[in-house]
Write a structure and sequence with these properties.
CATH class of the largest domain: Mainly Beta
Mean pLDDT: 84
Number of strands: 19
Radius of gyration: 19 Å
Strand content: over 45%
CATH superfamily of the largest domain: bacillus anthracis domain
Largest sheet: 7 strands, antiparallel
Distance between the termini: 45 Å
CATH topology of the largest domain: Immunoglobulin-like
Strand order of the largest sheet: 2-1-7-8-5-4-3
Order of helices and strands: EEHEEEEEEEEHEEEEEEEEE
Number of domains: 2
Length: 282
């Protein structure tokens, strides 16, 4: 099984806030080189302990046991690290992906669910997940209802592996940098976008933008440059609503700690499409 495959589903939040899950899978794609998620646990030089909640709880059902090891809270994102030990009779013929569902303080904020799995042995898998969200609650303390009830295996999960976790985002909020922008740019096909803000944490940096009409051409790329000339590319935008008017573009492992940067809309070749925007930390 390949370690560098990262599977993603975009989710419809139409039923947000209801007690029952009503998530509809809109898109299923395979993305190669999804190593940024693994980076968050493998890079020993980066310390995420302040944003991590150790769980270490195990749930069992007829398919096996699943242990939720850790939860990391990020800006509009929750990262999960789990271990799956299937029953001996379970022999998958392809790589197994889980798509856990999360309620935060009783509500559904999910917009994208990504997963990655690594076979540690014949019957032990390490499961990583990145759940993107929108309008994440500002509360310092969060109650997470985490249910592993969907996967890419034909056998249905009749009894989900469920966990109740209390997590804090107080330290994340303290270390988070917000660059308010609210400026318009023209992108591919002359699409006019409003760049709302850039939010940077020690875990990731995200550009938030929107348009008046649904964005069809989603090859929306950006670069952020420092005064010293260092540059980072944002190449994987994702919709934040079903109307496809609100979007985010995230780079994991990037923390903008300086006060001033430049944001540039670029095409597929990295060439500038519109005027660069000077951004300043709030």
């Amino acid at each position: 099984m390949s370690d560098d495959i990262f599977r993603v589903v975009d989710l419809n939040k139409e039923n947000r806030g209801r007690k029952k899950w009503g998530i509809v899978v809109l898109l299923l794609v395979l993305v190669l080189c999804g190593s940024s998620l693994l980076y968050l646990w493998r890079d020993r030089e980066v310390d995420f302990e302040a944003y991590k909640t150790e769980v270490g709880e195990t749930a069992n059902n007829s398919l096996g046991r699943l242990t939720l090891n850790e939860v990391i809270i990020d800006d509009n994102q929750i990262l999960l690290n789990a271990t799956f030990e299937p029953i001996k009779e379970f022999i998958p013929d392809h790589q197994v992906f889980f798509f856990p569902q999360i309620l935060v303080n009783g509500k559904d904020y999910m917009v994208r669910n990504g997963g990655q799995s690594i076979a540690r042995s014949a019957n032990i898998y390490t499961i990583y997940n990145s759940i993107k969200m929108d309008d994440f609650p500002p509360d310092e303390n969060l109650e997470l209802d985490i249910r592993y009830k969907d996967w890419n295996v034909k056998t249905r999960i009749e009894k989900p592996w469920a966990f109740q976790v209390n997590a804090s985002q107080a330290q994340l909020q303290e270390d988070r940098h917000i660059f308010s922008i609210e400026k318009k740019v023209k992108h591919v096909d002359q699409q006019e976008l409003m760049i709302d803000r850039v939010v940077s944490t020690p875990i990731s940096t995200t550009i938030y933008f929107h348009a008046k009409k649904a964005i069809v051409h989603d090859a929306l790329r950006f670069k952020i440059q420092s005064k010293a000339g260092q540059s980072w590319s944002f190449e994987t935008p994702y919709p934040l609503n079903k109307e496809r008017t609100k979007w985010g573009s995230r780079v994991d492992g990037l923390y903008l700690s300086e006060k001033n940067y430049t944001l540039v809309p670029v095409d597929m070749d990295g060439s500038k499409l519109d005027s660069a925007i000077k951004i300043k930390k709030d």
